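comment on this one:
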Amino acid sequence: MPPPSWDEVKALEPIVVRAIKAVLGESKVSQEIFDELVKEGLIAAYEALQRQNPDGKESLASISTAVALHVRKVLKNYLPLSKYSLDNSQNFEVDASDGKMHESSLSPLAIAVLLSTTAPNERLYLLHELLGREKPPRYCKTRLKRRWQKISWVRLLTGHAKASERKELLAALCRQAQEVKPKEREIAGFALVCLSEQLSESEMELVKQTAKVLLNSSDPVHQLAGLWILHNLQPNFWDSSWLNLLDINTLGAVLESQYVKPRSCLCSSPFCLHYYPPNSLRKLPKPEIIASISNALRKSSLVLQNSPNWSARWRGRLMAKALGLYAQFEPKTVADFLPTSLNRTGQMLISVLLARSDPKVGLEHALEWLPKGTTPKERILKALNSHEPVERSSALYVARGLPEDELKSILTFGFSDPLVFVRFAALRPMERGFAYDMMEQELLSPHEHKRLLHRCILNTMARADFERTLKIAKRIYLGREKEMWHEDSWLRHDAGYLLLESVMCLRHFDFSEIFWQVLTNEPSPSPFVFLPAVQALLMQE
């Protein structure tokens, strides 16, 4: 793709100016400094355009986000130290001995972990200290001090651990990450994420073993914490056993998110995607990773042919979709590792792979296994009446190669399928604007695979109509209406980042109160749910 012209960039100047004003808030700067910041913002917009998707459709919201993040980073170069306070709200340290905040450098995730260890009224005290607001009753500080005395590893996060006790505290934290109580494991897991970039060689081995224990949990958020720890310790680490071990939520994240996540994304996790379309690679997996996924795909086709089960169906399709994503940008590398002499089910998965890379090529390949008929549409409709879910879902994927008017009727038919596995295949093309109400209804309905499908639906709805999706994202993030929402911290995490995008890029400051409510009232705190709220409050201070 040719680089953007400067005229294209200059046309974005009003967006750049709005983003800079949002960052500055009420801070006053001279016209000379503001003009310099506009130049910085235009450079950031140019770089965002260079990173845009191959189809050339870069959202204005993502460009605005890129500008805001860049301006925040360079602002200290333009303002005197006495006036520069926009990022100072992120520089605090909590003394575990007296519950008082001091200047240092706690990350948003570390703050989210600390808030998760406290009761709501103690959280209120912590937030007031952090944000420099009027203090709540003093007894909250006393209770917080007593609580943290019982959670000794907190001193590791706040930087108050003595060298002589560090190993003992880290061991205590690792033990908590292996406890039976899910919430305790989650908090400890994310605490280890915060610490995993500042470990000695001997400490790394202990933490690495704990991360592997988290990967064996049945909870996808525990698995995510384990993956995040391993990523911090060794960014290119890969284990082919993940293809069978991981929950489908975390498998989808590890196969796609880390390779396509845009630099402008506000989330600090390497395995989150949010509403950004997963069709633009920033980096390609190593050949050995592609080879192991291809080999696992071949094994899945054998399982599906002989003794089909739901795990094999989901995993097979996730791996086929991931290979199709890689093939968009490195077709030869993927083709070199593709399995040959596959059974009919294996050919269906290859068609899914090709349809993700090039819909017309995927449809052409599917003609080898689709039921006989006079037209591709007729053959796809026959496949949608098959008793085998993999055949029905694969037919929906290859339907993307049909003309737009034919595709719409096929997808609508697919959304009436009784199995969520098949309806899932009709989901992604819906971001073109079809059936928004059908997606919303799916999001409100419980089913056996609600976690993965609900996250995918929420983010697809945001790509189709961001403003409209914010209403339901608010309800999900609060987590009060439905038990299935309250329990799904990953879904709430994604909903929180939609609200954060709206605050930072569209200046919907009315959503700020939602973040405050979650932080101060949440009865069962989760660092993963708290993370977007903490970032929102820090960015606005």
Q: What stands out?
A: Residues 54-58, 81-94, 96-104 have pLDDT under 50 and may be disordered. The chain is about 65% helix and 0% strand. Residues 112 and 527 are 5 Å apart (CA to CA). Strands lie at 93-95, 100-102.
